[in-house]
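Tokens in:
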């Protein structure tokens, strides 16, 4: 028997592991959607080092410090979006079999799979880090998703043509992930598909109503991870949606069941932002993480160019091969276990996060309008004040919770089975739109935090912040919200 043991001391298998050719799909059990079927091309993309990086990029960044179970990754989310994209496409084309195309079906699944490949460590926080480290660069993760996908295909010799995915189809996949909002008075701007298939552009990233499979997955996945309720019913929405055409022959998605489903999406999103994504402690830790990254950026040597030269983390997005090395744990552990004085400031901030010695919140107030330029006044007050605070000891944080930018409910299209061919949108500035999608009138919570340790510094910061608040409320672009709480005589 001992002769049959391998070097690790375990019995060697008597039968060789079977290697499935890429002709086969695989089925994965997902904790949100159940069984997910991964088509062969998506499987090839998924089983690459570049896509595997998403296993180490947490979906919710710093939320894990408040909701410890919210440690799921962009990898999980991408699989979910791939699944929902394919399922939604089938639901839409079921009543229009002439529109069904196996290549279109596959393309929307691939787009769903790769739509977040451009996220850096700590997800959306990385975009803010890059913008603060390199103001004016305008980097967004969507562009890097396209760059990373093309890099993945090239690096791994993915044979797209074996699935009839040609150059025009690749263009279509990229357009599904990153495109500008469509202005119908212009000529049809997309190359991947014609306007008769415009409905396809509402599946992954819907710039009209904001309701797409990306949002559907992250609401349910994030809500489940944080233990927050989500009421939107994906299956009901799929059964409600249908394809229609306008007078120019441009297709769009129309909803049969009234406006309850879109409203639930916006309400769920608002709830998760209020209680999860923009939780007060999450906002404080995000500021600390940003300070850590900014302090480490000039010195951390984890990204190298072809000649071995150091590339700043904030510049890695410019080259997919350099961006590919970045992940949450690699960045964090590289800072934590670094040596030398150059990274001491970054290490100290990270240790404060781990030991829960967080920046203190010394001021918090709700506003209807707030000009962010006003924060410069607070910086100057700290800089030229007579106390112990200095420039950089205070930071202003913003918590802005609404149900979507602008008024997305006004862009959702509805229909009524009793009047076939007639479609509706909600009246602009109607009471129901204002009540459900507050848009510009939503509250902005302004918080001031003190980076400096100690009660003395916090007390001085609190007095300074209150004085600042009195001054800025005289500004034209600042309107304080009415206090909802009033003293009660007992």
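Residues out:
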């Amino acid at each position: 028997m001992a002769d049959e043991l391998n070097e690790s001391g375990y019995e060697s298998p008597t039968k060789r592991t079977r290697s499935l050719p890429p002709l086969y799909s695989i089925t994965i059990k997902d904790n949100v959607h159940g069984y997910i079927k991964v088509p062969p091309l998506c499987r090839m993309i998924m089983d690459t080092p570049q896509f595997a990086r998403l296993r180490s990029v947490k979906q919710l960044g710093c939320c894990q410090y408040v909701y410890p179970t919210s440690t799921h990754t962009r990898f999980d989310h991408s699989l979910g979006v791939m699944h929902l994209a394919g399922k939604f496409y089938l639901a839409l084309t079921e009543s229009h079999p002439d529109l069904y195309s196996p290549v279109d079906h596959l393309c929307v699944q691939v787009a769903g799979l790769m739509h977040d490949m451009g996220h850096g460590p700590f997800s959306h926080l990385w975009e803010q880090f890059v913008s603060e480290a390199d103001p004016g660069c305008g980097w967004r993760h969507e562009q890097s998703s396209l760059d990373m996908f093309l890099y993945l295909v090239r690096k791994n010799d993915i044979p797209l043509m074996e699935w009839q995915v040609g150059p025009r189809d690749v263009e279509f996949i990229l357009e599904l992930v990153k495109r500008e909002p469509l202005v119908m008075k212009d000529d049809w701007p997309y190359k991947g598909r014609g306007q008769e298939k415009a409905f396809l552009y509402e599946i992954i990233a819907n710039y009209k109503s904001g309701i797409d499979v990306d949002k559907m997955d992250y609401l349910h996945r994030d809500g489940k991870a944080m233990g927050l309720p989500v009421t939107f019913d994906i299956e009901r929405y799929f059964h409600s949606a249908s394809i229609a055409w306008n007078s120019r022959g441009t297709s769009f998605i129309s909803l049969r069941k009234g406006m309850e489903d879109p409203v639930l999406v916006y309400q769920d999103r608002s709830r998760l932002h209020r209680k999860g994504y923009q939780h007060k402690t999450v906002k404080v830790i995000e500021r600390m993480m940003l300070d850590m990254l900014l302090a480490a950026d000039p010195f951390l040597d984890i990204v190298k160019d072809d000649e071995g030269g150091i590339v700043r983390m904030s510049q890695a997005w410019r080259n997919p091969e350099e961006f590919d090395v970045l992940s949450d744990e690699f960045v964090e552990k590289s800072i934590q276990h670094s040596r030398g004085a150059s990274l001491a400031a970054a290490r100290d901030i990270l240790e404060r996060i781990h030991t829960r010695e967080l920046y203190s919140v010394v001021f918090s107030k709700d506003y209807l309008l707030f000009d962010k330029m006003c924060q410069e006044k607070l910086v100057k007050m700290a800089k030229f004040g007579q106390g112990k605070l200095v420039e950089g000891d205070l930071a202003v944080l913003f918590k802005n919770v609404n149900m979507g930018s602008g008024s997305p409910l006004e862009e959702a299209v509805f229909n009524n089975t009793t009047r076939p061919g007639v479609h509706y949108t909600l009246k602009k500035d109607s009471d129901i739109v204002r009540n459900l999608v507050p848009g510009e009138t939503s509250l902005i919570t302004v918080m001031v935090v003190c980076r400096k340790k100690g009660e003395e510094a916090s007390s001085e910061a609190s007095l300074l912040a209150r004085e600042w608040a009195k001054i800025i409320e005289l500004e034209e672009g600042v309107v304080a919200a009415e206090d909802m709480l009033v003293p009660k005589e007992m």
